[in-house]
Design a protein that fits this description.
The chain contains six helices and nine strands; from the N terminus they run αββββββββαααβαα. With 290 residues, it is an alpha+beta fold.
């Protein structure tokens, strides 16, 4: 018959054995789970192997197997991404003023707000990971500095007011072409440059406002002159029409003298009797007594 001590030892042994089994199961589960990797839609997986480094074959969307703990997978976003540089605090990736200070062709200092839309080349995600790193790395190394460099260079080719004129689309086109070249060298594809806002110095802004007020006054003056000219032309046409009507009426009266008599009769009061006599005879009127 087993003693109490032996029973305790047996219980402890069973407990240790059970604990070992539980730990082994957990480890196996961790190994199994670490052997799977899921790549979400619009993303790409880049595999880092402890022995070979970054592998060239990227992982597409879906579930994949890898060597547990020996390989790590970095899931990278291949969808459209945006990077905003704005004068408004908290609007872009930097909390402070991140607008692009530039100097225009005519020597004015302007601050440009811009948003860059882009995506990484999925087929070259391994090179991006190897050369640049992850999202925040290529934001800091490529996206932001290249955008600021190109925008400053393009603004320098135009006058300050061109940025808010019909030339704005051409300016954005110049920026897009230059940035496409700069980003493509690092396997990043530019989609669009959005020129959001342009801020001028206070003095220049005041000068622009004065110029605009003067321009509006000129437009109003020209409009008033145009209206006066149209009114004058209208009165001339009306006067010519009235003169023509009078001429036609005079011709008609000369050709038809009876019409004069008819109009004379129409203007006589209703209490006066009258009659039409032959030509050269004075009309007889029955004048009422008052």
């Amino acid at each position: 018959m087993a003693t109490v001590v032996e029973l305790k030892q047996q219980f402890l042994a069973e407990k240790v054995k059970f604990s070992i089994i539980i730990v082994a199961i957990v480890i196996i589960l961790f190994i199994i789970l670490d052997g799977f990797v899921s790549v979400p839609p619009g993303h790409v997986g880049v595999v880092f192997d402890q022995g070979q480094g970054v592998l060239e074959d990227e992982l597409d969307e879906g579930l994949h197997l890898k060597i547990p703990f020996w390989q790590q997978v970095t899931v990278m976003d291949a969808r459209t991404q945006e990077y905003t540089m704005s004068i408004a605090k908290g609007e872009g990736y930097k909390t402070d003023d991140d607008s692009i200070e530039s100097r225009s062709k005519d020597g004015q200092v302007v601050w440009v707000d811009a948003t860059i839309l882009f995506h990484i080349d999925k087929a070259q995600a391994d090179d991006i990971k190897r050369e640049l790193g992850t999202k925040m790395d290529y934001y800091a190394k490529i996206i932001r500095p290249r955008a600021r460099e190109v925008i400053r260079a393009v603004v320098a080719n135009y006058n300050a007011l061109d940025l808010v004129s019909e030339k704005r689309s051409q300016i954005v086109d110049d920026m897009s072409k230059a940035l496409k070249v700069a980003y493509s060298k690092h396997n990043i594809e530019l989609e669009e440059v959005v020129l959001r806002n342009v801020t001028y110095s206070n003095d220049f802004a005041a000068a622009i406002e004065e110029k605009e007020v003067a321009r509006q006054k000129i437009k109003i003056s020209e409009y008033q002159k145009e209206q006066a000219s149209e009114l004058k032309e209208k009165k001339i046409i009306e006067a010519e029409g009235e003169a023509e009507a009078i001429k036609l009426k005079g011709d008609a009266l000369r050709d038809n003298p009876e019409v004069i008599q008819l109009e004379f009769v129409n203007k006589i009061g209703p209490n006066i009797s009258w009659g039409i006599l032959p030509n050269s005879v004075m009309p007889l009127l029955n004048m009422p007594k008052f």
